[in-house]
Input
Amino acid sequence: MNTQIKPTMHKGRHVAAGLSTILAAALGISTAMAAPLDTSWKMATLPQVKALLAKDSGKVSGKTVTYSGKTVHVVAAAVLPGFPFPSFEIHDVKNPTLDIPAGATVDITFINTNKGFGHSLDITKKGPPYAVMPVINPIIAGTGFSPVPKSGGFGYTDFTWRPAAGTYYYVCQIPGHAATGMFGKIVVK
Output
């Protein structure tokens, strides 16, 4: 089975966002401010974020979230209150391993609750370790760089992924984030 995606961001925007991020890092400015605005990002209030988080269809067992069925819904958040920066949280677990059935359609919602930084949730076959200035190729599916959430709200976006069996990783491509632990493993079988 081929891996297929329904991208929410054009390949050219990934390149532009990556170049903007490198330039911003070299100049010492916020990387989140350097990324071009992607209009597929929506704003949500805290009650809406809690409702989005509740839509995750996985079951937790230790540091693993297991999904079942032909369509699964993964909801990941960047840096929820009480979790270390930088990290992903899924079902109140920091950077869990995700077990997904082969052949499933995976609907992913990514929420950025961090008021100071943009983040990304991108999927790749390249495993750790990751460099401080990551060049993670190829990106199979993902969000690209998020805008910094505006005051009083949180940013979120959705994408769909149809993975073939294999091992993948979800990562944040903001410089330094994956290198310091903002990644997790996905096992599709």
User: Anything to note?
Assistant: Residues 1-38 have pLDDT under 50 and may be disordered. The radius of gyration is 15 Å. The first helix runs from residue 11 to 27.
